Amino acid sequence: MGNSGRLDYWLLFSILTLVLIGVIMVYSASGFMAQSKYNDQLYFFKKQLLWLLMALPFFILATRLNYQIYRKLALPALLVGFVLLGVVLFLPATKGVHRWIRLGPIGIQATEVFKYALILFLAHSLSRKMNKIRQFKHLLVPYLLVLVFFLGLILLEPDLGSAMLISAIFLLLLFIAKARLVHLATLLLPGLAGFLILVFGLGYEKDRIMDYVAGLQDPLQGSYQLRQAAISLGNGGWNGIGLGEGRQKFLFLPEPHTDFIFASIGEEGGFVWLSAILSLFLIIGWRGLKTALSAPDYFGFLLATGISLTILSSALLNVGVVTGALPTTGIPLPFLSYGGSSLFLSLTFAGILLNISKQKSSWE
User: For residues 161 and 321, what is the distance between their CA atoms, to the nearest angstrom?
Assistant: First the structure.
């Protein structure tokens, strides 16, 4: 372990600024829906604020703990993630999908837990195998088994977007860990073939794909969500119509405080706010990868890389969906979207990333 230094203040500023914007926009975007549904304008705001207050101690603790301790949690975390993915399939569906585990007022999104657990497991496992990963037998066990098993569970929810996102991060980390391209192709090509059969042969999530194709030709001809998101972004223009002044949140734009909060921000803050938010995510990606390259060991390198890629790719995927560049998925916008498990896990793992940024030595 290298000498402990100061936190990366670029990272810290970007993370906390996004969290602050998120809390403000959850209040602004959810007030009307909360009043009409729960007779309490602050309903979603108070829940988000409560999750933030619960997450902050873990965030601070994660910046202080020796990150090597997470090696011991890697396998248990992965097993917990698998259990949650299995349990959620036997619980009542919410809006036609099995994604949330409800514990009283608390909702846990199983795929969010698994996503970060997988990053932790891969960082630990790949750092132990080192160059052995270039041998195909070490790629098959356990990585292919893990990939196939989790894909099956997530697709049953159904959640095609999360399956594709996690698969991409999974393969990217294997590539960064120096797995052979020809070996990765043996995982990727059958997966792509299976995707095409699943969607166009068996009709899995085909409506969403067709809505996406229609939206590419004309955003106003795509799905209802895409049309309303396009109207929100168009209303905002360059400078927005003002904080709290958005009109699409009056039950026109679905999920204005969750998956489509980027559209709500665009309407009220305009291109200026959207550019600022994208810049903050790019800073996290830049400083996160810089942290990885200066990490004192291979585990720290892989863990920092995985966390950075997860936050940045989740953000870009969400933005791609809202702007109509990608098919509609249920991926939340890290630090910004309403949702306890997403905020809690994003902040905690961001704390781990900041912890690694304090280490000044480098590995060979």
Answer: 10
Domain boundaries, position 292:
9-357
Distance (Å, whole) CA 169 – CA 146: 13
Structural domain count, the chain? 1
Q: State the CB neighbour count (10 A cutoff) for residue 293.
A: 11
- Has residue 1 been placed in a domain? no
Which tens digits make up the pLDDT trace of 170-218?
Answer: 889 988 988 888 888 877 777 777 777 776 666 666 677 777 776 666 6
Contacts of 25 (CB under 8 A, 6+ apart): 257, 261, 264, 265, 268, 336
Instruction: Please report, for the chain, how many H helices and E strands are present, in that order.
Output: 13, 2
* Phi and psi angles of residue 303, each rounded to the nearest 5 degrees, phi first: -65, -45
Q: What is the pTM of this model?
A: 0.91
Residue 175 within a domain: yes
AA identity, residue 52: L
- CB atoms closer than 10 angstroms to residue 57: 11
Helix (H) or strand (E) holding 280: helix 261-293
Domain assignment present for 343: yes
Say which DSSP state 102 is in. E
- Is the preceding peptide bond at 254 cis, omega within 30 degrees of 0? no
